[in-house]
Amino acid sequence: MGRALRVALAVLAGLSLAPGVRADIAELLGGSPQVLSPQQAFAPELVAGTDGMLELRFTIAPGHYLYRDRLAVTGADGAALAPALPAGEPYDDAEFGRVTVLRGPQRIALGIPARPGAGIDLRYQGCAEGRLCYAPVRLHLQLP
Questions:
Q1: How far apart are CA 141 and CA 14, in angstroms?
Q2: What residues contact 53, with CB distance under 8 A and at least 6 apart?
Q3: Half-sphere exposure of 57 (CA within 13 A, CB side)
Q4: Gap between the Cα atoms of 122 and 58, Å rounded
């Protein structure tokens, strides 16, 4: 089997792999990696914390970050909440200059009792490092 045929078969085999692997192969071959939706990239979730209070969780995908100062939470009554945000890390952003960003899993205590049906309105913005920045996202999260 010739070298070109082996490479072609390897590429075809790679196309049947998981999306993350396909993105890595696409990047190696000069294509663009998969772009995640903001909900996939940051995966916000409202849960009842172990202390019986509401907790906002983000599972930030590798290579992505949230702007700490672009994160806002309001209660069901529309009043702004002042959650204890993680310290984050300083970052020199091409768009906004020196900012603080959050990466990886984040847990944010909201100081509201976790009752069934409790909800919040959430606003956040983040980027896929070196590729794109997402428009600000607004959504409502609610406990089941």
A1: 37
A2: 109, 110, 111, 112, 113, 114
A3: 11
A4: 12
CA-CA distance, 25 to 122, in Å (whole number)?
A: 35
Write out pLDDT tens, residues 92-135.
998 889 999 999 999 999 999 999 999 999 999 999 998 899 99
Same domain, 118 and 49: yes
Residues 72 and 126 in one domain: yes
Domain count, the chain: 2
pTM value > 0.85: no
Domain with 18 in it:
1-34
Which tokens in the block code for residue 48? 């009842």
Query: Is the distance from CB of 43 to CB of 68 less than 8 angstroms?
Result: no
Q: What is the DSSP letter of 117?
A: T
